[in-house]
Design a protein that fits this description.
Keywords: Transferase. InterPro entries: Nucleotide-diphossugar_trans. This is Glycosyl transferase. GO terms for molecular function: transferase activity. There is one protein chain. It contains nine helices and 14 strands. The protein has about 300 residues and is α/β, with parallel strands linked by helices. The strands form four sheets. It has a seven-stranded mixed sheet. A three-stranded antiparallel sheet has the order 10-7-11. A two-stranded antiparallel sheet has the order 5-14. Strand 1, helix 2 and strand 2 form a beta-alpha-beta unit. It is globular.
Length: about 300
């Protein structure tokens, strides 16, 4: 091995070490911010007596925040809920949907405290992540529903930005974080290669991702959205894909709202529960690509993605 090659290899090793160092520093910084926010939310939870919801109406129907969780995350969900209760614009209702199997399970004290301030806990059939929206659509068809995830702490103006955009032009589904669908010869390129959505214009190619928070106007879907036998069979692990497909099926567009983070990441992830997150199934096993193909072929939706 020549001296020049040895020098090049040594330089590459230093670069690799620097990359790892930067990644470690970034992780420490992120954890520090997250832990500080948790301390703040815990203080709110224990000492705040104000309602986490409001009777104020921003339009002629209610704004409902809907989410779901399951037993392994039951003791962590309160953080997402508390971040929603501390919003600059509060929801009219906050509903946590739990599977029927948890009906006899004693709820954590954190959730019980939040129930005194407006949180509603409802039970339904276990349809995985679809519990965050399907039961709410059935129960409140005339209201706007904002879905959030149970493993995120949200920025204080999440609801404000979604609601303001919706009131201004109520024909769209509004989202904070999403991707831009990438096609080649009329077919999907791999999901992991899709770029983040930065453009705030409505487009058939906008693909909302639920973790950022999504507002669904009343009657935005046809009744096909409730076809459980289909979505649990061909799209069991990605409600994002199903709801995007059902929006296209009903000729509805999605539109990104302003976010403080250009990528739409106006939230902090709870890293302690990420090992059981759906994105590990969908990304690690390329399930998104399979489910996209199956749903779009079943409903013949590819033609609707052609940008005029």
């Amino acid at each position: 091995m020549t001296p020049l090659i040895k020098k090049i290899e040594a330089a590459i090793k230093k670069i690799d070490n620097l990359d790892r160092l930067y990644a470690d520093i970034a992780l420490v910084y992120t954890n520090s911010i997250y832990n500080s926010r948790v301390i703040q939310l815990n203080d709110y939870l224990l000492h705040c007596c104000e309602s986490g919801v409001t009777d104020t109406h921003y339009c002629d129907h209610e704004i409902i925040v809907s989410l779901t969780t399951y037993e392994p995350r039951l003791y962590e969900t309160y953080l997402a809920i508390e971040s929603i209760m501390q919003q600059t614009v509060k929801a009219n209702r906050i509903i946590l949907w739990l599977p029927d199997s948890l009906k006899t399970t004693t709820l954590p004290n954190t959730l019980q405290l939040q129930m005194k301030r407006g949180l509603e806990v409802r039970y339904c059939k276990d349809i995985r992540s679809y519990k965050k929206l399907i039961p709410a659509l059935r129960s409140y068809p005339d209201d706007a529903i904002i879905t959030i995830d149970d493993d995120a702490i949200y920025h204080i103006d999440l609801i404000e930005k979604l609601v303001n955009s919706y009131i201004k032009d109520p024909q769209f589904i509004y989202f904070n974080r999403g991707r831009r669908i990438n096609l080649q010869d009329g077919k999907f390129l791999p999901y992991l290669g899709w770029k983040k959505c930065f453009d705030m214009e409505a487009s058939v190619l906008n693909f909302p991702t639920g973790v950022g928070g999504i507002l669904y106007p009343p009657h935005i879907f046809s009744d096909e959205v409730f076809n459980e036998s289909v979505f649990m069979n061909i799209c069991p692990f990605s409600d994002d894909i199903w709801f995007k497909a059902m929006a296209l099926y009903n000729d509805k567009l999605c539109k990104k709202v302003y976010t403080h983070n250009r990528s739409g990441n106006d939230y902090l992830e709870n890293l302690s529960v990420q090992n059981c997150a759906l994105h590990h199934i969908n990304h690690g096993q390329q399930q998104n690509d399979i489910q996209l193909k199956d749903v779009f072929e079943k409903y013949d939706l590819y033609e609707k993605l052609i940008v005029m």
